[in-house]
Design a protein that fits this description.
There is one protein chain. This protein has an eight-stranded parallel β-barrel, surrounded by eight helices. The chain has one domain: TIM Barrel (Alpha-Beta Barrel). The protein starts with a helix and ends in a 15-residue tail after the last helix. The protein is an alpha/beta fold. The model has no long low-confidence stretch (mean pLDDT about 95). The chain is built from 17 helices and nine strands. Strand 4, helix 7 and strand 5 form a beta-alpha-beta unit. The chain binds zinc ion. The site of zinc ion has 6 residues, from loops.
Amino acid sequence: MSFEKALEVGRPPNIVKLFPNSKALLVSGKAVDRAMIAKGKAMTIAANGRSSFVIKGTLQAAQKANAAVIIEIAKSEGGAAAYCDVSLWNMARQVDAYCNELGITVPVAIHADHYGIKSDDDLEKAKVEIPSLFDAGITSIAIDASHRPDDENLLSNMEINSCVPQWAGYETEVGEIKGTQGLSTSEEALFLIQGLNAHGLHPDWIALNNGTTHGIEASDTGINVELTNEIHEALAPYKLSGAQHGTSGNNSDRLTRIAEETQTTKANVATALQMVSWGVKVNEFGNAILDDNGEFIKEEGKGVSEELWAEMVEYAQSKGIKGGDYKKLNLPFENKLLGQTAEVRERMCKAVEDFVYDLLVNVFNAKDTAPLAIEALVKANSYDLGSKAESIEDAAEWTEEKLRARASTIESDKGPEGDWDD
Ligand SMILES: [Zn+2]
């Protein structure tokens, strides 16, 4: 009964318009966040759907765990200069189709990960491109201007906000994900969030640089739980949840601590799911194990067929592609992967399902959160769950002039330049 009701009232207008006869419960990112908050000490996966196999496997795991989940793709992965076949414009269509095909009844949000704004030119382009993302079924977005100085980060979020529907999930970011360098501080995070609050903008999530890196984990330092908690506590009046990036490869104990000890409700996982779907050797945390030559170790009978893997390695070598850059094989090989036998395609999805199910149930505490998201939507009798916070900061104290002056007093180490994208 409540699933049907949620289907009726809980799907945002862009989803209803795109998929009028669908039985897939695609929802705002807010609904997923609220479900984790309702359960408490819980976070769910935001799976970067670098391939259709990752998307299908994640949906199957979510259904089995009865968990609300997020399927996402980053601008670098699926944007205008994509290296994946899954894009910001076809992701919702794929998720909706697979949900109907597989009989998925858990709520799923469609998130644009790291929608990077690195310049004024990007900002102008975003004003056209972001509305097109929502027209294509996006229901949640990460505005990532963390590459810019603090005042520009804040101003970019403010300027672009009118392009983001109020009902959508909204993630913002302070401090680019750079491992142990340029760690975020409470001062930086408060500057961004108080400035937004003063202008009536209330993000659902904040992403921090709390010690992880995207891709293959080189070191085991990983997530700094204490720093994450310190910043989340400083932000408590603004009712933000945390979005954990660079989850792949972090040990489960630390991930469980993040779910239990901080306000994190979303854990982005990209690289590990790609590797698991391909059938290369990974450690228990999904971190790829490289041989002495720095090459991946393909496990026979798992993931892609041996013949196709040989072709992938040959292609990579011909392009000088190594290690983490293997992610660039997603686009050229998606159709070849889809052209494999049903048995091979299914084992790729099943491997992702098993990996994600274990994370959801045994690490993230996301089991049985689907009914909590459905309950929130049915109770609101709407797809729009509104903001968690109210404006408590004075806009007069956050004029452009004053916020620029404030930003100039922030002492922070942004860490080294470079390509740290997903
Ligand atoms: Zn990220």
